[in-house]
Amino acid sequence: MLLGTGLRLQHVGDRSMTHIEMYVPNIPMGTDLSVPKSRMDLWTVVTDTLSSDTHPPGYYVFMWFVTKCFGSGTLAIRLPSVLFGVGSIGLVFWLGVLIGQRTPACVAAVFLALNGYLIVWNKTGRMYSMVCFLGLLTTILLLLLARSDRHRRTLEIGYAALTLLGLATHVFFWAMLATQMLWVLGNAWAQNRPMPRLLNVQILIVILGSPLLASAAYQSVNQVAFVSSVPVMAREYIQFVYLIPGWDDTWAPGGAPALALAPQFFLPRVILFLLCVLLLIVGIRRLKPAGERLLGEPAGSFGGAWLAAAVLAVITILAHIAIAVHHLQPKPTLKYTKAMTVLPLLLVFAATLLRKSWDGLRNWCSRWSFKFLQGGPPLVWMLAVGPFALLVIASVVFRPLTDPRRLLFLAPYLLLTLAIGAVRLGQRSRWLALSLFLILGALHGFSVWAYSNRSVGPVDYKEFADKLKPHLQSDDLIFLRREWDTTPILYYVKPDHYHLLASNFVDACRRNPNARVWALLFHGEELPAAMEPALKEYREVETVEVYLARGVLYCRGPCR
Fold first, then answer.
1. Is 433 in the same domain as 470?
2. CA–CA separation, 231 vs 234, rounded Å?
3. Is residue 30 part of a domain?
4. Are 95 and 105 in contact (CB under 8 A)?
5. In a domain, 560, yes or no
6. Closest by alpha carbon to 105, among 115, 93, 114, 113?
7. Which among 105, 84, 110, 107 has a CA at the least distance from the CA of 95?
8. Same-domain pairing of 97 and 183
9. What residue numbers bound the domain in which 441 lies?
């Protein structure tokens, strides 16, 4: 954990801000200059997330309080992700101990600490570290609850609250909850149990979280991830979760090509893939059913709690519809949200039907054996494989939903499974153990080095601003497009210090005939058509440039 902390804190505040971090609240970005707009109050955080994002508002609400207390500096924006990432290192060890795999738990913690791809995203102000941490916590609480002979209300409340927080932070958390529910169902059927109390608690969570599904339906019109190749994504996921850069979604400085993609590295990459497949198979076989008796307490009465939760959920969905109609520009997908008003009540009906038909369903399912799911160990490989499979199926059948960074919350379970496989193979001979130690150690060391200068965006806005600002004068006009790829420059060239404009360029030049004009251009673009009429009487004088960003100075007469 100390090593992981050091790697994640290294230069954490020095790296350039990126577009996805500009969604953090309380960053002043001027009026009508940025995408997204500034989120300076809680109401704007919630409404703007619902209208222009693909994620629930949980992380942004959390960060509103963080930045309100500690400011919107790069360290304040990124430190929560660092802490969640470090906490996940400790939690994966705890999870391994709970399933009786202490040595692999240590190895998995090292894998998590030294994964360069995870380090990059743990140093970024985004929700992925938080989702990973919450997923591990809910899994640990699930195991503790399943092994308890009597219900422990504090643990149940904690499990429900953290699961709802996970659902409110990232929409993919639903895949994790679905896998956890499948594990509970499998254990109940394998042991011929009455409907377990824990399953009833999970159903209650689903009902309470159903408004988040209605919100996701409303947000479905927004742009989501693009899956270029599911086989490639699966291949690199299996290889210690994008351990080697090249097929991931990070960027090398200056557009430098990934060293690992050179032709001479083709054979080592094939060998690494085959090794990971072997470790995964051995790890899953090692995570065999423990034969332990779980879910000891029967359900009790949950009908009233389900109904109360459904009423609260319906009210919440209606409130979302009212906000969309009266305070946002309604999207065509609002019709889906309206249709989902009945979803909470349908869930109550389905849950009641399941409870009443449980005995018959259990007898019908007894013809199949669910013993392979029994006990705590199978939960780990299920979470390593199950949510990934669900998300891939949804991406293929419906629309692209996922990309590498959205799979980070599954990393601890895959790395623990691979660690179990590595330890099991290493027990066969001392030479094999030494070989695995050297190979995996070298790979993780290479990963830390290879990702050390990479970022989650191609443009270094900080470097560009540092190079541009000495050339700026107090009365200069600065033109830029109002778009996602120009927004991070507003973090460094602040609207309250400079004359920044994203529209009305002709009027601005007419009102300031003697002012110099800077046009900020990104990703190799030429002068936008919207700026050309304003600058037709100007001449290009100077250019300040870094990789994929340049500022062009225009003057009407002699430049001062």
1. no
2. 5
3. yes
4. yes
5. no
6. 93
7. 105
8. yes
9. 2-451
How, if at all, do strands 549-555 and 477-479 pair?
unpaired
Residue 102 and residue 27 share a domain? yes
Instruction: Quote the pLDDT of residue 54.
Output: 84
pLDDT of residue 30: 82
Tens digits of per-residue pLDDT, 305-329?
999 999 999 999 999 999 988 877 7
Indicate the residue among 397, 426, 451 that finishes a domain: 451
CB 239 within 8 A of CB 276: yes
Q: What is the pLDDT of residue 256?
A: 81
Question: Does one domain contain both 339 and 465?
Answer: no
* 96 CB-contact burial (10 Å; exposed 0-12 / middle 13-18 / buried 19+): buried
Asked whether residue 121 falls in the same domain as residue 8, the answer is yes
CA 548 to chain centre: 26
Both 100 and 176 in a single domain? Answer: yes
Give yes or no for a contact between 17 and 74, defined as CB atoms under 8 angstroms apart: yes
Domain count for the chain: 2
Contact between 324 and 331 under an 8 Å Cβ cutoff? The reply is yes
Same domain, 39 and 108: yes
pTM (predicted TM-score): 0.94
For residue 227, pLDDT beyond 60: no
- Higher pLDDT, residue 220 or 213: 213
Domain annotation covers residue 409? yes
Contact 250, 455 (CB under 8 A): yes
Structure tokens belonging to residue 488: 């991070």
Give the per-residue pLDDT at 50. Answer: 84
pLDDT tens for residues 363-396?
Answer: 777 666 677 788 889 999 999 999 999 988 887 7
Vertex 402: Cα angle to 214 and 171 (nearest 5): 30
